[in-house]
Amino acid sequence: MDGSDGNFERAFLNEQKLRLAAEQLLKDKSSVLVAINNELQKKVADLEHQQMLFVQTEKMATLGTLSAGVAHEINTPLAYAMSNVESLQNASPLLVALLKLNEQYLNNEIKESRFKHEIDILNLQYPYAWIYNNLQGQINDSVEGLKRIKQIVHDLLNFAHPTSSQDKQLADVTTGANNALRLLSSKLKLCEIKTRFEPLPLIWCNLSSINQIFVNLLMNAWQACELDLEKGCIIEVNIFELNTNICIEIKDNGCGMNEDTIAHMFDPFYTTKEVGKGTGMGMTLVYAMVSDHGGKIEVNSILGTGTTIRCLLPLKV
């Protein structure tokens, strides 16, 4: 082997050694990157879980505030449904006896004269004129009351159900407005509620978050008006298309906010409410949820006059 062959072989071996070292370095770096990526994914999952727990905590606080009113909303239809059912229970002997008599007469087990006589006796024991006048109405009222209770329970479960921010679907945001207005109906009963819902396209959104946005904004509007109910509480809920966005607009004629309050209203735990009337996280959550949908919030408020809050959600994210 001459000198040139030896140099070539050494160069080849050096190149191979360098290539193997580079491959090992790349492999090591890749392993480190995979480990870092896995750790980041875990941290993101942990953050999402903490956010979901945080949202649930705020929901439970809201439900605690609403509990007395919701109990009243359930008890009222439940009371008249129970009263109507008790009336039917008291009348059940008459209904059963009439059915038996009718069956006996149709089967020729008793004669017509006996049939009429027995009916007259029953009518004396259990006057059944109310059947003609009240039975259908009582049944209809009971069904409507039970439907109302079912709707309230459905709205409560729908609001309280835990969801991830990733759980998105094509939905109509007016559904969230209607859900929130039903849920808060007892709280808002002293307010004049004006709504303007324009026909809108469906958007890709988390409907649970949309519900929460409406609930928090409406609760804030109510609490702003609560300070001076004598002038009359007026809350407007408007949903319409604005350029490339769907605009959720909540207006109230409440106490309004000064510039300092507006500047800090989305800060965590910032509140101007009395102790026990707010967690200071309601508007923070609204901001986070609107941002999660790629949207933005506009606030216009005049102290002593009222507040208008607009949440702009893009039609396409």
UniProtKB/TrEMBL annotation:
Coiled-coil ranges (or none): none
EC number(s) recorded for this UniProt protein: 2.7.13.3
CDD domains: HisKA
Gene Ontology molecular-function annotations: phosphorelay sensor kinase activity
Top-level taxon: Bacteria
PROSITE patterns given in the database record: HIS_KIN
Domain Histidine kinase: from-to ranges: 69-317
Catalytic activity, reaction form: ATP + protein L-histidine = ADP + protein N-phospho-L-histidine
Annotated SMART domains: HATPase_c
Keywords annotated in UniProt: Kinase, Phosphoprotein, Transferase
EC supergroup of this enzyme: transferase
One of the Pfam families matching this protein, by short name: HATPase_c
Keyword Transferase tagged: yes
Protein name: histidine kinase
Organism: Pseudoalteromonas distincta
